[in-house]
Every structure is written in C-alpha cells, then in structure tokens.
Design brief:
heterodimer, A: 4-stranded mixed sheet, about 15% strand, B: 10 strands
C-alpha cells in the first residue's frame, strides 16, 4: 500500500509536469482522441508531445512488459495511473485497436519476432491497426468466413471481402481472419494473419451509417501477397486466437457506455431531465421520466460495481467465467437504453439533424442515439452473447 | 474494501450453508406452514443461531455480540435466503435491534440487546400503517401524559409481531402523517394493556401481525431516542435492514435461478432437454446477468454500512430496487420454466415465488426505492 501511495505521488507529479495544457482540456466537438498511425497529421503539436512522453514511459500500454515498450506496471499501479489521469483531466494519449485488441493476443500467441516487431509500434502509436473479422456472409456466424488465404510456397495469397472493418480507411495494418483450409470443419480451417493495408490488392470503401458517420468500411482483397512470417499462432489454429481477441473487444465495447468512449450525451441525465422536462419542488416534473432516470443511474451503479467485483475476484482467482460476454451484453444494452432515455428527455430537440435551432449537445445526441444501435451488434450481437453465456457459463446443452 | 470474499468470509459462507441446509431446509418452512405452527419459526433454530453468534453478529462485543460487520451478517442472511429459512433475523436483528442499538439508551441496549445476542429475545418493529411501505406516513398518535405517553393507532405487516416479546412502535408526537418531523419510537411490551395483536397468515408462510394500540400507556423511559426526532434513527435502521433484506433476497433468487437451470437440463420434451431451446436459453442467460448484478450491489451496500460511507442510503435503495426487480423476474420465470409442476404445491419452486413477492414488497418495492433514490440524489 505504501508503495502504491508513493507511486501515486510520483505519477501525479510526473503527469502535472508532462501533460501539456491542451491535453488537460475536455475535447471540443470537432476533436477526436489520438488514434496514431503513420499518416497521422498533428495540427496540435502538444498532442504529439503528449503521446511521445507517455509512450516513453510505456504508459500508453501500462501493463505491457517493458521489453516491448510497455509500462511494466501491475494492475494496481495501472489503476492508480488511470485514477491520476482522471483526477488531473488528462486525455488518453493514445487509443487504438492495437492497444485494446491485437496487443493482448500477440502477447499471448505471437512469436518473439512478431512481438518485437509490432508491439513497440503500437505503444508509440506509429502503426494503426484495423480488424478484419466480419464478412457479408459471416456476421453472427463469424466462423463461416470465406476470405481465402492460399499457400503459395513463400507467401499466402489472400482473396475475399471483409465488412464492418472499423476505420479501415485510416488503418496501416490489418489483423485478419482467413480460411486456410476449406475442407476442414469451419472452426478448424481458420488462420490469423497480419498484413500491411498498403499491400497491392487491398482496397477500402467506407459505409455510411444511419447516424450519418462512416466509422465502418468494406475492405476488399484481390490477390494480396502476405509473407508467411505474418501468420500468428498455428496454421488453421486461428479460431482460438479470434475468440481470445473477441473477449478483449467485448470488454472494450461493454465499457463504452461508461464514458470510456463517446461523449455519453454530455451532461448527467438528471440535470438534463431537469433542464428539458422542468421541475416541481426541485424534482423532475415528469414522474415517469424521473423513475426512468433513477432506474438508469441505478443500472449504471450495479454495472460498474460488477466490473469492479470482477476485477477484485480476478485478483483473488475466483472471477466469473465468460465475464466479457456479460459485460458486452449489459454494457451495450444499457448504453442503448441511455440514449433512448436521452431522446425522450430532450424531446424534439433530440430530433435535429444539422443546422440552426439545435445546440451541439442536442445534435450530438441525435447522432449518438443512432450510433448506439450498432453497439449491440458489433463485436457479436446481444443474442450471440446470450448464446455464449447459456453455453459456457450455464452449461445448457446444444 | 474488496468485493471478493476473504478466506474467513468464505469459511463463514460454507458453515452457514451447511447449517441451514441441515437444520432449516426448504421443507422445514413447509412443515411450519402445514402444522400451522403457532410460533412460525423454529425456536431451536433461533437458539442455535444465537450460539453460533449470528443473532448478534453485528452487535458490539460488550453487548454480547460478535462485533463483526454487515459483510458477515449478509453472508448468513444470503444462506438463510437460499432455503427460505424463517428466522427472526430481519425483525429482531435488523429492524428492532438496530432501533435500540442506534437510538436506545444504555439500559435498553444492555438489557435487550444482550438477550438478542443470545437469541433469547424476539423483537418487532411496528411501522407500516397502510398497504405500502411509507415510513413517514404515520398516523398513530403518542400523546404526552403525566406518566409518559399514550399510544393510539393501528399497525400492519409487523414482521414477527405476534411472537415478539417487545415491540418498537413508531408513533407521532407531533405533526401530520407524511411529515418526517414529529416521529418518535417507543418500546412496548407485548402484554401492554390496550395492545391487541392479531397474527396474519401470509402467502410466504412467514410471520406478520396487525396491531391495534388502543390508548396503550408507556412510561417516559420507553422512549427510544429523542421525542420528535425518531426519523433520524428510523432512516438509519431502515437503510441497514433494507440492505440486510436484500442480502437474504440474493440467496433466494440465486437458489431459484440455480434450481431452474438444473430443471432446464433435466426436463426433456421432444426428446431433448428443454434447456437446449434458444427461447429458454436466452431468458436463462438474461437471468444470470441479473443474478450477477444483484450480487455485486448487495456486496457493495453491505460494505458501505461497515465503512460508514455517506452513500449508504442511496445504496440501500439501489440494492433494494435491483433485488426487487430481479427476484420478481426470476420468481416468475422459474415457475414458468418449471411448467405445470411449477404451479403445484408439491414442487418447492412455488415457495420461492411466494417468498419473492413478499420480500419484494417488504420495506419498499422497486418503484418506492427509485423515487427515494431520486429524492436523495436531488432530482
């Protein structure tokens, strides 16, 4: 405990000295977090400075081993770092799928050369990764994917199509599920490949969503040559890695409703309800809205407490299994309920699409409400999560 | 405080589970019900719980208690909830016992609570007057007279009221029903003149009673806490009792859930276990999530009492609202999934449904606690 206290003091001082002023301000409506990447253009040099300083201590990936550029921190120390960053309003220096998804599975399944090559670049934000999982014919039935990788002696030749590839249009590299054995059972013929999005034959086309934004793409592969050294794990053994990575993805998406991603509607629900629905003797005037706001705040409390319990139990080795499916399911469904409630609270002010008559928060709510509909689909639908819980946790028969 | 159980707490959990499954399995509740047992719980069981230190588990050691925390009491309550064990833990330890612990004078605490710790005393809190939990909606009057006070009014849903040796009665010394100010708590012996106690037979087989106080005279020393400021004590009592009840509900809903999952695996229709049907799998998985959330918030709320945290009241409402909704869902789903056998008296799952509904409505349902949470949170 004493060590943690001195660590906290040291970290607090270091952050104060090293986090540039603009990185301690809330993000403006046109700003995004730093996703890094080789094509990243820094309009604000402090953003780059902040990334470099954090990366120099491995704090962009606090718990990764030092030999790959990580911070080498214990989970308790990493928690202190996160708490201090929150206390001092420091923005995350870097967010990426390399950090949340690929890194953890490379650490577990990658060979030494792959770890040494890719992990430090993720830590420093030099390479931005995207995820090649879903295909037009393989959504919930992910293992039914058809993108082929043929063994051509010194390389694999990849042909096929991916969809819902988040930010493929900004990504430098892709981690991709490909079918290497078309005759094996569907789970047993899949491999996990890494390749450069600049490889000849790769093309990307963004998809416009109901929210108006285009975070997802269609990604096409035509005779893409991939060096054999870019195979992670065993040939045809990719499904195990795919599932491990999905757990990390689900935890990330499940936490989004808690303000770790997105603006969360900007402002607490109860304050917004007071502002838009009026008050009577200090209470939200509409008793139904008041009840639903209370319900939502309670749900959030129960959920965050469950996340914390899961962490506490993991430390003592008694953690619940398949926890990531539960968090993904509940976190996304809760986030959807939050936006439905926000729309109800804001009334017709939540119906604006663009232009005059609506403030930034209101316009953001409209778009985020629509964006939240994808939360219970991406990374495995709620129904898929229910299947996983029924099978893996409850042991219900097929 | 960690939300994971410590080694000592795991040990207590195992001991408690063994104890209740051996001494108070679900069939014991059925026996008490069918025999129309005049006490409504087993005095032997209560005595044993006294010997194990559970009746006074949260009482300080100088009052003969174990000096442990709500984290520990919660474990015992949860295990009792698993077998629907009827015990005076809620009426005596959580409700009236806390009123005396938090509001009582030296004499009251010493005399009564040391007896509670030994499980030699049963107490009850006479609070509710209408069909709903509304702790300030008190019309029962306590009129000051030369020798003390004269109490007049009616009480309902008084847990263990017909077997309590002493009752803590919430009455109004000033103000009008609905007001927080003006409430006072009085210690009334069961034999008091003018007190009529009528046992009510409840759906869950547990004890409750209606009281009529027809000019019941008590001495000034019967006052628990200060006159007119009873709500200060009452609020804290209800927070603790509500969280304790939520812990009991956790055991009940977890057991009902686990029995349902087992049934889904055992029961065959169309030649396969019914648990292989997705229509049931998804509902089972949704219930699992509710069980997990319920467990987390109960553990958190119990620890908040032990740490004397300022958000205990809010957590009490979060916990009771969540547990009420969850036990409602799981009780109903369990009976539906058991099918025809689920609506027979012979199958035990029906007893869980009955207890679920009684517990849901005890000390405020989910809607009550959401409104209370909103008020406490300033909206």
């Amino acid at each position: 405990m004493e060590n943690l206290d001195s660590f906290r003091t040291e970290i607090g001082k270091w952050l104060e000295a090293n986090c540039p002023p603009s990185m301690r301000k809330p993000m403006g409506p046109d700003e995004d977090l730093n996703w890094g990447g080789r094509d990243k253009v820094y309009e604000n040099l402090e953003e780059k400075q902040w990334l470099d300083r954090m990366a120099s201590r491995g704090f962009t990936t606090p718990t990764w081993p030092k030999q790959y550029g990580g911070g080498g921190l214990s989970s308790a120390e990493a928690r202190v770092l996160a708490e201090e960053m929150r206390r001092l309003h420091c923005r995350p220096a870097l967010v990426s799928f390399g950090i949340t998804m690929l890194g953890p599975v490379l650490l577990q399944y990658g060979n030494e050369a792959q770890k040494s090559e890719h992990l430090p670049k993720i830590v420093r934000g030099e390479i931005r990764w995207c995820q090649g999982y879903s295909e037009p014919g393989a959504g919930s039935d992910l293992a039914g994917l058809q993108t082929r990788a043929e063994d051509k002696g010194d390389h694999y030749l990849v042909n096929g199509q991916k969809i819902w590839t988040s930010y493929a249009d900004y990504a430098d590299w892709i981690f991709c599920l490909v079918r290497t054995n078309p005759t094996a059972a569907k789970h047993d013929g899949i491999s996990f490949l890494l390749f450069d999005m600049r490889s000849p034959g790769v093309s990307v086309s963004p998809i416009k969503l109901i929210s108006g934004s285009s975070p997802f793409c269609q990604t096409f592969f035509q005779d893409v040559k991939v060096p054999k050294t870019n195979l992670v794990g065993k040939l045809d053994g990719g499904w195990t890695i795919a599932k491990a990575l999905l757990q990390h993805e689900r935890e990330m998406i499940g936490g989004m409703g808690l303000g770790m991603g997105g603006s969360g509607g900007g402002g607490s629900l109860d304050q917004l309800a007071k502002e838009y629905c009026g008050t009577e003797s200090g209470r939200i005037a509409d008793p139904v809205i008041r009840d639903q706001v209370a319900q939502h705040m309670m749900d959030t409390r129960c959920f965050t407490t469950t996340l914390r319990r899961s962490g506490d139990e993991a430390k003592s080795g008694t953690g619940p299994g398949a926890a990531s499916s539960m968090f993904k399911l509940y976190g996304t469904e809760m986030n959807k309920r939050r936006y439905e409630l926000l729309v109800k609270v804001l009334g017709s002010q939540a119906l604006g699409w663009e232009g005059d008559g609506f403030n930034t928060r209101e316009l953001g709510t409209t778009r985020e409400w629509l964006r939240s509909k994808g939360n219970s689909i991406e990374g495995g639908t709620s129904e898929v999560q229910l299947n996983i819980i029924a099978k893996r946790v409850l042991g219900l028969p097929d | 405080m960690s939300l994971a159980l410590s080694e000592e707490q795991e040990l207590l959990k195992n001991t408690a589970r063994e104890f209740v499954s051996e001494n108070s399995p679900v069939k014991e509740l059925r026996r008490l019900r069918d025999a129309q047992d005049p006490v409504g719980f087993s005095r032997d069981l209560w005595k044993q719980m006294g010997e194990l230190g559970w009746a006074g588990i949260v009482l300080p050691e100088d009052l003969g208690g174990a000096g442990l925390g709500y984290a520990e009491l919660g474990i015992v309550l949860e295990e009792c909830g698993r077998t629907l064990a009827a015990t005076p833990l809620v009426s005596t330890t959580l409700l009236a016992g806390n009123a005396l612990l938090l509001g009582g004078n030296e004499t009251q605490r010493k005399e009564i609570l040391t007896a509670v710790a030994k499980a030699e005393r049963v107490l009850a809190l006479a609070l509710q007057e209408g069909a709903h939990h509304a702790p300030y909606a008190i019309a029962t009057r306590a009129e000051a007279i030369a020798s003390g006070y004269r109490l007049t009014g009616k009480k309902t849903f008084v847990l263990d009221g017909h077997v309590a040796d002493q009752l803590v009665v919430v009455a109004r010394t000033a103000g009008a029903s609905g007001e927080r100010d003006g409430l006072s708590l009085f210690l009334v012996p069961k034999a008091a003149r003018g007190l009529t106690v009528t046992r009510t037979i409840m759906v869950d087989g547990r004890n409750a009673a209606n009281l009529t106080l027809d000019g019941v005279e008590v001495e000034r020393s019967a006052l628990v806490g200060s006159a007119g400021r009873g709500a200060d004590v009452l609020d804290a009592v209800l927070d603790r009792a509500t969280i304790g009840l939520a812990a009991e509900m956790l055991g009940t809903l977890a057991e009902a859930f686990e029995r349902t999952i087992k049934y889904l695996k055992d029961r065959k229709q169309f030649g396969v276990p019914i648990g292989s049907f997705q229509a049931l799998k998804h509902r089972a998985a949704s219930m699992f999530v509710e069980v997990e959330l319920s467990r987390s918030i109960v553990l958190e709320a119990l620890r908040a009492i032990d740490e004397n945290r300022p958000d205990v009241s809010q957590l009490a409402s979060v916990a009771k609202a969540k547990l009420s909704d969850a036990i409602h869902l799981i009780g109903n789903e369990a009976v539906q999934m058991f099918g025809g056998i689920g609506v027979t008296d012979e199958e035990e799952i029906g007893l869980f449904l009955k207890r679920a509904r009684a517990a849901e409505l005890t000390l405020g349902d989910a809607a009550y606690h959401r409104a209370r949470f909103a008020a406490l949170s300033g909206f």
